[in-house]
Amino acid sequence: MKNADNSRRAFVRFLAGSPLFLAAGIDGKSLHRLITGSTRDQGEAFDLIDQVSQDRQISSPGEALDIFDFEPVAKAKIPPAHWGYLITGTDDDGTIKANRDGYAKWSLRPRRLVDWSHLDTSATLLGHKYDTPIVICPLGSQKAFHSEGELAVARAAKAKNHLQVLSTVATTSIEDVIAARGAPVWWQLYHTSDWNQTRAMIKRAEAAGAPAVVFTVDLIGGSNRETMFREAMNDTRTCTNCHSGGQPRPGVSGRVDDRDNRRKPAFANPAPGAPIPEAGPPTWDYVKRIRDTTSMKVFVKGILTPEDAELAIQHGASGIFVSNHGGRADNSLRATVECLPDIVKQARGRLVIELDGGVRRGTDIFKALALGANAVGIGRPYIWGLGSFGQEGVEAVMMILRKELEIVMKQCGTTSVRGISPAYLASR
Ligand SMILES: Cc1cc2nc3c(=O)[nH]c(=O)nc-3n(C[C@H](O)[C@H](O)[C@H](O)COP(=O)(O)O)c2cc1C
Fold first, then answer.
1. Mutate to test the pocket of ligand 1, among 75, 135, 139 (most ligand atoms within 8 A of CB)
2. Disulfide check for 214: which of 105, 188, 280, 286 has CB 3.0–4.6 Å away?
3. In sequence order, which residues have a C-beta less than 8 Å from that of residue 77 and are 6 or more positions away?
């Protein structure tokens, strides 16, 4: 505790004395009061720090040293309410931090003098070979971040040969995204309260050529997105010009049964025939029902325990996403990467396992692969790229992560993704 106090004091002294803050008209005393104050004061302090660091933004993707360099540029270009949608977690956002901290619980065990001259970063998922195991996670409403939205992301995925997973609440149709990607994408499903409609959406994705449906199960009970509501209050635009559901507010989750989502392309064609209302929230039988409905492979997204991994297998899933929705589902305070080893042990090779949540560095990707993930997903970082420079930004983010992964693979003496094993990690 004493150490933490000392480091905090040193940090505040450092910030307070920084010429950048003085130049921005922020005095050291005020900053000190905020940083040592309540959680909300601290939030304000970090906003100030953000503001100052924005003065030193990159002006082209090529200037970025790491993926974090895209974040302030995107923040400056994306409207505040949409920025809030991107950054929010749930409650006080603690699980976002937990996801990041999770990777620090393992250290690397580098091996020397290995010939890595034929480095193979490729990964094969459902028979398709990708250049890397880095997956573009499903993320809703991408035109809220850039006018080309999911199309720019699809073009970047094509250029760098990444797996892209398209959200149910995408602002571009699956047919257009597959055309832009030049290859099938996987399709993520949020169920609706009408099975007839849900089935029609699944069938549409299948007809478009998606080889997998990824059923997201971690938001079914709802989530409390305070940061989103707070950021929306800073937006002076009239939300109802675009959002028929109105201003985001507590109790309106932004999920598929909300009026607002009905304008999304996945809901464009009303399902023919009479509605088939669901009796209640979905349970494991629903996974089997999806499997019996489609020839696509079924993945379940949002799995965090070995018990649920086993149930996924029993109900016919081919794979799972070990994910907590980027800390925006339940505020579990448990990192996805911490959940991974028990799940891998339980699955015994019977599931394709994707991990996402807080992945920001090549070393994070390496650790997740070493702990048994077959693929590793990112969410917010590619949107930082999209929001700042469109397709070029997304490509640059993916490229930086790939380069970082290559370095750690070489430094650890691994020559292929399959060769990355727990032997390269030590628990801290
Ligand atoms: C703004 C935003 C929208 C998202 N939309 C969806 C979605 O529509 N469907 C889904 O399954 N996951 C969605 N996710 C979760 C991501 O697929 C992924 O699990 C998460 O972003 C990974 O964490 P990271 O952002 O820390 O990389 C969303 C995440 C964010 C940040």
1. 139
2. 188
3. 387, 388
Q: Which sequence positions are flagged as catalytic?
A: 325
- Is any atom of ligand 1 closer than 6 Å to the C-beta of 139? yes
DSSP symbols for 337-390: HHHHHHHHHHHTTSSEEEEESS--SHHHHHHHHHTT-SEEEESHHHHHHHHHHH
- DSSP per-residue string spanning 102-167: HHTTEEE----S---TT-B--EEETTEEESSSEEE---S-GGGT-TTHHHHHHHHHHHHT--BEE-
How far apart are alpha carbons 349 and 343 in whole angstroms?
10
Q: Is the CB of 325 under 6 A from ligand 1?
A: yes
Tens-place pLDDT, residues 335-382: 999 999 999 999 999 999 999 999 999 999 999 999 999 999 999 999
Q: Which tokens in the block code for residue 161?
A: 């040969």
Q: Is residue 73 part of a domain?
A: no
| Probe residue for ligand 1, chosen from 325, 364, 380, 394 as the CB with the greatest number of ligand atoms within 8 Å | 325
DSSP β-bridge partners for residue 353: 320
Residue position matching structure tokens 């503001």: 51
Helix axis angle for 94-103 and 336-347, nearest 10°, is: 60
The rounded radius of gyration (Å) of the Cα atoms in the chain is 22
Residue 201 falls within a domain, yes or no?
A: yes
Indicate which CATH number applies to the domain containing 183.
3.20.20.70
232 part of a folded domain: yes
Q: Are residues 274 and 404 both part of a single domain? A: yes
Q: Domain of 123?
A: 100-427
The domain tally of the chain equals: 2
Q: Is 193 domain-assigned?
A: yes
